[in-house]
Write a structure and sequence with these properties.
about 0% strand; 3 helices; 2 domains
Length: about 100
């Protein structure tokens, strides 16, 4: 009887240790390799850098457009800008103009 109790308590203790170490191993594995783990954090930080660079470019472009619109909104419209827009929309060019294709 004493041997059975000792053997039973040994196996119960061993089973508890195995189950708890399995659970800890499972959670540690997913903390490292899971979709929200440490490895995924590096990918998210890289995509954040790319998005921040894109935001800087778009902010610069927006400021450029705001500056051009400010010239159109004033009481006196900038003649050069008006002529540029008219020529672009009509597709006309003066014979003495030099055309530089952009974009």
């Amino acid at each position: 009887m004493v041997v059975r109790r000792g053997l039973r308590s040994f196996f119960i203790t061993l089973a508890l240790y195995l189950v708890s170490s399995g659970a800890v191993g499972y959670f540690m594995f997913h903390a490292q390799h899971g979709s929200r783990g440490l490895e995924a954090r590096g990918g998210l930080q890289e995509s954040l850098r790319v998005m921040e660079d894109e935001l800087k470019e778009l902010t610069t472009e927006r400021k450029s457009w705001e500056q051009r619109l400010a010239l159109m909104r004033d009481e006196a419209v900038d003649r050069d800008l008006l002529e540029e827009r008219a020529r672009a929309s009509l597709g006309r060019v003066h014979r003495n103009d030099v055309i530089i294709m952009g974009r």
